Amino acid sequence: MFSSERRFDPFSLVLGILFAVMSLVMLRNPIGSLRALIILIAILLIVEGVFKLADISVLQRDLGLSRGWTIFSSVIDIILGILIFMQPSFGAVYIWILISLSFIFDSFFALWASRFIGKEHRGLFWFNVVLGVIGVILGFSLLFAPEMAISVALFLVSFYFMFFGILLIVRSF
Fold first, then answer.
1. What are the transmembrane regions (predicted)?
2. Would residue 64 be called left, alpha or beta, if left means φ above 0 and alpha means ψ between -120 and 50 degrees?
3. Would you say 38 and 95 are in contact if contact means Cβ atoms under 8 Å apart?
4. How many domains does the chain have?
5. Is residue 66 helix, strand or coil?
6. Residue 49 domain-assigned?
């Protein structure tokens, strides 16, 4: 079943090249990429809301979520998705706020978690603290600079596509 013999995988190569080209296209055409990202987010919000409503009993049984909270959450997802379809500028605001808050909360979490590694690894502790403080500063600066937040979001998606494309190309050989 598992062999040490590696064979060429043309599907991974083609997919990797497509991801890498898509990354370059995103960087070359940021306005079109933003529109596509906004539409993708709207579609994913609607699909997530519908799936949560369809699987409400499974979510309640397996995760212990209350039925009322699940219905409320899925309706909010569907409304946000429809609103983003109808007003694409709201989608840009959604991305702006989401990126800014994710930087802030992730950095605060990193600062909180650094206290657990401080006793054993002093170097890692200070590295984590410095990155956490930089992340908080960056998050608040993104909160007050929407253009920069949108640019960061597009760059992060483009970087992911390029990284994943290169990984698939290397993996194909």
1. 12-31, 37-56, 68-87, 93-112, 124-144, 150-170
2. left
3. yes
4. 1
5. coil
6. yes
Interval 4-55: pLDDT, tens: 666 888 888 899 999 999 999 999 999 999 999 999 999 999 999 998 888 8
Within a 13 Å sphere around the CA of 116, how many CA atoms are in the beta-carbon half? Answer: 4
Structure tokens at 10: 């043309």
Percent of the chain clearing pLDDT 90 (strictly above): 60
- Residue 4 in any domain: the answer is no
Residue 1 counted as domain residue: no
pLDDT at residue 57 tops 80? no
Show Cβ contacts of residue 56 under 8 Å, excluding neighbours closer than 6 positions.
67, 70, 71, 74
Domain assignment present for residue 5? The answer is no
Per-residue pLDDT band at 140 (split at 50, 70, 90): very high
Q: Is 98 left (phi over 0), alpha (psi -120 to 50) or beta?
A: alpha
pLDDT at 172 over 60: yes
SS3 88: helix
d(CA 140, CA 107): 11
Q: Which domain holds residue 49?
A: 10-172
Residue in this structure with the two tokens 């608040």, named with its chain if needed: 140
